[in-house]
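Re: your question from the hallway

Yes, I did run it. Sequences:
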Amino acid sequence: MSGGLDSYTAAAIAKNGGFELYALSVLYGQRHAREIDAARAVAAALGVARHLELPVDLRGIGGSSLTADRYVPRDRDLDAKEIPSTYVPARNTIFLSFALAWAEVIGACAIFIGVNALDYSGYPDCRSEYIHAYERMANLATRSGAEEHARIEIRTPLIDLSKRQIIELGQRLGVDYALTTSCYDPSPDGAACGHCDACQLRLRGFREAGTSDPGRYAPEVDDEPVGEPAR
Amino acid sequence: MSGGLDSYTAAAIAKNGGFELYALSVLYGQRHAREIDAARAVAAALGVARHLELPVDLRGIGGSSLTADRYVPRDRDLDAKEIPSTYVPARNTIFLSFALAWAEVIGACAIFIGVNALDYSGYPDCRSEYIHAYERMANLATRSGAEEHARIEIRTPLIDLSKRQIIELGQRLGVDYALTTSCYDPSPDGAACGHCDACQLRLRGFREAGTSDPGRYAPEVDDEPVGEPAR
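Structure:
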């Protein structure tokens, strides 16, 4: 649970499907630590059974503008196919591994992750081939897998959705996106920059869904839906 | 690199094979934090290019007598097939995920891990089926895998060896096992207990190899090779 809109929507889908929720947030030395406050608000709104915040300092590994003191790109072409500098090496593999350990301890039968192959086409660990390989490995890695009962499923309900579809689905499920934050490079007062990849994807999604983004942006950012006058 | 004899031997094999070594130690809230001092001594002895110590607090996940305040079993039957309480859920999956992230950043072509299927038959994540599934997943998870160059191999040179064979191989490669510590439950002065699974396996291995264990044990522990009088 990152505090962004994808993990919130994925969790709302799980809840709507009758699952009891155990939410995991990884504190990984990201620049945008404000995400954790958003994650707590989202966990509370969902009524999770438990919210585990797991600290791990990935800065020693480096390799990403999200964990190192490196420039976060602004107004990048989202349709470019290269892997952006915000890619955190093996991040989903690390996150899923924590989730797998916890799932084994609490006896969970599924891990929901809000990965999305369309919007993050440059991220290798958001593709369904990767998720299927992870699930296969996970069931060999664990006590439950080894004992051939209670397999663990990796569920990716957003993997083939556009950001617009994710937002429309979340709104039907009653999520409150005002609680969320997505920006990779917020200002000191917490306003989203409107120019990093995450902001661009999010703003475009809300525009295409024909609704305003309830997130808080730096003053000059146009967060109105397409076709309506900017404030 | 745990500070135990398996990871040291696996690293010595890699070095002997011409690899430049980057050593990763995970500080995971284990009871036996003294392992880290041993890992540093081992890394120095091997002349590694870098030794990364990565802190992650797995105690929030729980589920193991190594990370929780639970009793470490003594004099357990090593041939019993149940999974022991010292099993840390998904531990190798978590460790390999950190290694994978670092491997991607530094451009490493192989990850060596000292897992052993014979001595740890109760641990699902020490089996070769698991390692193969991990390797397959790893090459889908990463930038290099996605770009179809520079695949990452997971190497497990000890997986089919007995502890005796591991010790004999290490000794041929000139490792200094006096630097290592294996005990799950050392005394406050750092002496190994001689009774936990790790001590039992290690003592048996040295006995079968016909040599004394250079590790430091609590006074009553018999660490002499088979057939020789106890001190």
